[in-house]
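ok so i was messing around last nite and threw this chain in just to see what happens. nothing serious, just curious
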Amino acid sequence: MEMLKMRKNILSDGTMLVHNSLSNGTTPVHNSLSDGTMLVHNSLSDGTMLVHNSLSDGTTPVHNSLSNGTTPVHNSLSDGTMLVHNSLSDGTTPVHNSLSDGTTPVHNSLSDGTMLVHNSLSDGTTPVHNSLSDGTMLVHNSLSDGTMPVHNSLSDGTTPVHNSLSDGTMLVHNSLSDGTMLVHNSLSNGTTPVHNSLSDGTMLVHNSLSDGTMLVHNSLSDGTTPVHNSLSDGTTPVHNSLSDGTTPVHNSLSDGTTPVHNSLSNGTMLVHNSLSNGTTPVHNSLSDGTMLVHNSLSDGTTPVHNSLSDGTMLVHNSLSDGTTPVHNSLSNGTMLVHNSLSDGTTPVHNSLSDGTMLVHNSLSNGTTPVHNSLSDGTMLVHNSLSDGTMLVHNSLSDGTTPVHNSLSDGTTPVHNRLGKTSTPVVHWIIFQNIY
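result:
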């Protein structure tokens, strides 16, 4: 009879329903979904139906069917605030969030993928925050003089303010960290000069060219005239004619280092870069378009970075234990690490976007377990068996060890080592013999 009851609980989509009578008389229904999450349906005394869903980020939204047909979703966040998602008749999904200052911003997903945030402020104004695709945040605020400033928080911490003037020009004021003030003004000829008064009395003039580059002319005390050109990657090379006729290019990088590019007689380009740890990597562009980077490290090893034609980056490094791991950055941002171990196995570590770590290891019996560290500290072990099934072992906090096995018919039995008073284990072999 117990087997018959379990057989009725295997659904056509391969999910497994588990009914459990609780001490308060309610009957939650647990449903294992294809994405690994767990739905719990609970019938309340008022006839509503709560659905708890464990998400990958550890939050627990609760879906509640209301009498007006809407479905708010309450989600407890880590900061103690409570998000409520509500499906509206126009298809938008505003999100109300109670903040500690008593204000109530409303997030609304627009058709262009941007996110509007309305927030009632104490001064009666209503700024609208709009998160753009580049991660910046626009804030529109109507002022008493009828102008409309737009504040945009940039990645460098500066805060430019755009203001539409009566003559149709657009002024952009930007306070820099050194106390100087940049003023951008769109002129009738389409150029955009930027005048910046420096503390040494010199005057920088930025001019945007037709190719999108930015030239910066600065008169120096030695009479030379370097030209700074801001590139599309945000770096700033400086071209300076030297007495020997060569033309080194200095480029200030985001890490504060200063590489020097030098054109050689064979047409290759060497880049010397003094790093903060005293090492000196040398970048050399080869005839096949690849880029070798040799770097002498303090431990005497010599890693060689080589950018391949598919955009991946191989890093070979001779380690003190004689092993040779090869790191390969993939197009999806993950990092594969191949390492030959002393027992002849070859584990491959892959950092995933959610912070978990997959470890693939070829064993002597031909199986391939995959270990996955989860955010809650548990460890999933996937093992492909000879019959094509997939076992998943998961160590739980209560000491139990459920094993999920996906079968050829799409069903998913769950084996669980429970206590003596718990439900007996369901074995697929017995299950198959009975049915």
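not much to say yet. Residues 2-8 form the longest helix (7 residues).
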